[in-house]
Amino acid sequence: MADEANRTAFIEIQGRMIETTGKLKQVQTQIRNKETEKKRAYLTLEELKQLSEDTNTYKAIGRTFVLEPKTVLMNEQEQKLKDGETAIASLQVYSQIPFSLQHFVTHFLSRPDFFIVINYFLSHKIDMVIK
């Protein structure tokens, strides 16, 4: 009977680890995408800084290009850069949560009272899964 409870607890933890790992991969992909957007905004901003003030600058809107002042385009790129940094910082917090769960499981897996700890963990419904 106790073996069955331990097995059930282990399967539940294993399921949480699989779910958390999937969510971690999603967060890592989002971080990479935000870093790409941030780098694109930075490079565009650097190129805009090199242009003289009287240069005609255009903003792409779909298949159309609209004449925009250089300052407007620079402000947009600076805002994209700031937004990217903020998004990356918040996503990095989420990406660290699964490592604490993984550390918990690997640390206690070698302990003889592993299943007692797992049962405690499950009974108190400590949830470390990313929302």
From TrEMBL:
Origin organism lineage: Eukaryota, Viridiplantae, Streptophyta, Embryophyta, Tracheophyta
Pfam family, one: Prefoldin_2
Source organism (scientific name): Datura stramonium (Jimsonweed)
Coiled coil region boundaries: 24-51
Record keywords, A-Z: Chaperone, Coiled coil
InterPro entries xref list: PFD_beta-like, Prefoldin
Family as reported in the entry's similarity comment: Belongs to the prefoldin subunit beta family.
Protein origin, superkingdom: Eukaryota
Protein name, UniProt field: Prefoldin subunit 1
